[in-house]
Design a protein that fits this description.
Helix content: 40-55%
CATH topology of one domain: Nucleotidyltransferase, domain 5
Order of helices and strands: HHHHHHHHEHHHEEEEHEHH
Number of strands: 6
Structural class: alpha/beta
Oligomer: single chain
Largest sheet: 6 strands, mixed
CATH class of one domain: Alpha Beta
Distance between the termini: 52 Å
Length: 345
Amino acid sequence: MKQINFLAEDNRLLRISEMGDPLEKVSKAIDWEMFRPKLDEAFYHEAKGAGGRPPIDRVMMFKIVMLQKWYAIADDMTEYVINDRLSFQRFLGLTLNDKVPDAKTIWAFKEKLQENFTDLELFSLFEELMEAQGIIKREGSIVEASFIDVPRQRNTRKENETIKEGSIPEEWHENKHKLSQKDTDARWAKKDEETHYGYKDSVKVDKISKMIVSFNVTSASPHDSQCFFEILDDKDKELWADSAYAGAELQEDIKHDFPKISLHINEKGYKNKPLTDEQKADNREKSRIRARVEHIFGHMTNSMGGMFIRSIGINRAIREIAMKNLAYNIQRFTYLFGVGRTIAA
């Protein structure tokens, strides 16, 4: 019979560190306490009296949400995975003696984040700190949109027509359980040969750092050019975009609202008016810059579980996309500065 080794956990964690634990790098680069004031404000409630179970640490719960985004873990699987992985436990500050939050607790925490827009405030907090420390340069912005798919609904044609008109099928009101599982905000969209059902994440990215500065979430159906005005601001000196934003009227609207902005938008060729060689060369140069935003969506697709969420309704979609965008920014910061610099409030 093997003897008990009381240092086995420490030895295993040391080996994980030697192999290059990515979560340990994040922990050393990020001061997670910067998020506590926002989280405490969102979850504050008057004490009913002495005693009672102490609340679960809110920063730890927020870090669980980040784990879900980095590793594409659903609520039901999260408790198991944390119990199973020492690196996750160390990242969360848990030991083998501690209880891991279950799926219902995690779900309730995320619902509370959404309830008073704390999800958006957490994203903005980190973005503002990066800008204050000069990581986000604001020397140029790139805009792009990507579809975020959700599970496809099996509705009848008549039901889809009713939803598209902005109403809810009458028979669904009679079955609350069915209605709670129906996403009446998601929409169908087709681009090239691909068909999508869900939402669209329109992002503005800092050209130098490849950080997401702001974003806007809509259903999948609006054209890209209809989704990005909300994410522009007076700090944008230069704007890089693909040919979806090439319309003369659209560019005039941008210049009207932001007269100092310099536009670098790919030109579009037409059947009776193809692009000249000079225009093609100019487009290639613009695309070389604009491609940086594609690296972001490529990272989310290949390293963060893909552009897919399991939620119902646009409010939850905004929450899930906000947390995904924030999770990317945290990983990007860790990559840019390694463990040599810590970002803190």
